[in-house]
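ugh ok fine here u go
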Amino acid sequence: MCCGTLHGWHGAVTLVRQRDAKERNAFRRNAEAAWKVAFARKTAKKPNLDKKAAGIDLGRAQIIDFLAADNKRRRTAVSQEQAIEHLRDPLPASSADAALWQPDRESLGDPTPTRRSPTGSPVVAEVEALAEHVVCRALDDIRTELGGQIPDKVKVALADHFWCDLLAQLAHAIDEGLKHIESVPDRLTDWVMKSREQSRWQHLEARVVRAAARSVWSKLRFVTFSGMLNRSLVLPVIRLLAVLMCKSPERHKAVVEHCVDPLGKGVLAKVKEKLVEVLGDWLPKMSRSGA
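structure:
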């Protein structure tokens, strides 16, 4: 059981990597049709969940199209700098110092990931690296924390918005600044525990959340230091993975606020107005930009 680690992103990556755009085009057309259907019904003026979900699907279609176009360009050895410019989501100065991304001693024993090509990996490869080498491997540390086996009840709870919330809170922490890197796992644990309580998602013990937070933070620094992830793309890649992984962002405020909203300047610019129309209360940056 993947415990939610394979939600969403795996299918999206498959679409991105297909050279034939037929299925990607179908995904986008279905999203556009769902938007029209949601607004064809006579409902209250306040956006309902159907309208919010339709907006999110338009956003996901836009993300998939962006990743596919970037992947195609990279096959012709175009520099990664173009993707970095388009994402327009740089690390804040307080999080950009390379010294903050030095791995801890525990992670130095991990297998060294493959380094990027001279022109940089496609952004979709960075999304995969984050999912496979950071998120999925964190399950091993949870298993260790629980004595070698993850109970079914914990597996179900982990699949209930845990990983996407952890990624959203991680993006939030990096965006706020990494002046005290040793406190990042504790901050993530506190934010995730509060988020789960407020959203009434299935309960997880704090020690499980803390084990995952420590693991993800440690492994993220390692794959960045080793060269598998471009430090300039860490923040947007975390956000892209969270949006693709979340089973229902329209119900998940942290994912929308910390991951969807900052992508409005670049990847999601074309659908920004529609997103603000249905999720404006959770999109302060997009709303302020005059969408």
